[in-house]
Design brief:
0% strand, mainly alpha, Four Helix Bundle (Hemerythrin (Met), subunit A), 51% helix
Amino acid sequence: MSYVSCVFSEPLSIEAKAALAYWSAWSTLTIQYPRADLSRVPEHWQIFGARVSALTGSPRLAVNPPNAVLNYLYSVLEAEAHLAAAELGLDPGLGMLHRDTPNRDSLACDLMEPIRPLSMHIWCAI
């Protein structure tokens, strides 16, 4: 195991457990729709639901509007983090905490972590 793996493994394990508790708390949140439209809204759209999609086993390809909006907000945030890294001459694909995988800007993902709560704040205001 590399030094970096040793240094980050415990904090990442703690973060994963915290994320599980966090998203579990959101899963039962009731979503408000206009009363006139409520009869046309499927029942499974009326709660926040699981953050993990039944289609992919990950948060991608959300199966309800609340998670789809959150995915959109996170995509905008990731694009902004990518642009900020590139503007500073950093490679958005070379992250520290997120593993470098094909087609993912790992540094952009690292940079967006402290700002994710702002996305949730915007989501709640919608």
